[in-house]
Design goal:
It contains 7 helices and 9 strands. The protein is α+β, with helices and mostly antiparallel strands. It has one domain: Trna Endonuclease, Chain: A, domain 1, CATH 3.40.1350.10. Strand 7 and strand 8 form a beta hairpin. Helix 1 crosses helix 7.
Length: 185
């Protein structure tokens, strides 16, 4: 099967779905958090301004400075793997270091199994490189922009991540996704 072309229409569709996931993770984290400050979605103009500096500005922020980057992985439910974009993590770390911010969490959302896997990005690249050296992960080019991606077995990712949840996520996901079709590969 040929890879879908990266068109403007496809990009906008992906952005719409990304906003759903961002809100989903914000709602979930606000529900789970004992912190009185809620996560909010970072304004897109701030994210676009970051691109000009070569940064990737995370998707969610809380008043205390906690940041979360939300990544969707629509194919992980049938591949059994998750993909972590190396360049994205590196550019987020650059953003945080340049702006003296806390390192963000990376949240990988699986819409078909309604699971959430989260990693602290501090030292994440080094950990993933180590897993690649041990044969527990792979570094491959792929995705829409043919960038380097760490490919990790989903069950292994759940065993090494900083947080994962398979249980309560559907309670928040189903109302938010009501009436929206999850794209098929």
């Amino acid at each position: 099967m040929d890879k879908p072309k990266f068109t403007k229409k496809r990009f906008h569709k992906m952005c719409d779905m990304a906003e759903v996931s961002e809100q989903l993770v914000a709602d979930y984290m606000n529900e789970k958090s004992s912190n009185s400050d809620n996560f909010t979605i970072v304004d897109k103009t701030i994210q676009k301004a970051g691109i000009k500096n070569g940064w990737h500005v995370p998707d969610l922020i809380r008043e205390d400075g906690k940041l979360v980057e939300v990544k969707e992985d629509f194919s992980s439910a049938w591949t059994g793997n998750i993909a972590i974009e190396k360049n994205c993590v590196e550019r987020m770390i650059d953003y945080c270091e340049a702006n003296n911010l806390k390192y963000p969490l990376l949240a990988s959302v699986n819409h078909r199994e309604y699971s959430l896997v989260m990693f602290d990005t501090r030292g994440l690249i080094e950990k993933l490189d180590d897993f690649c050296n041990k044969g527990q992960a792979r570094l491959l080019r792929g995705g829409d922009l043919n960038e380097w991606n760490y490919i990790i077995n989903l069950e292994f990712a759940k065993s090494i991540c900083d947080f994962c949840d398979d249980l309560n996520f559907p309670l928040l996901a189903k109302p938010l996704l009501a009436g929206r079709k999850v794209p098929k590969s």
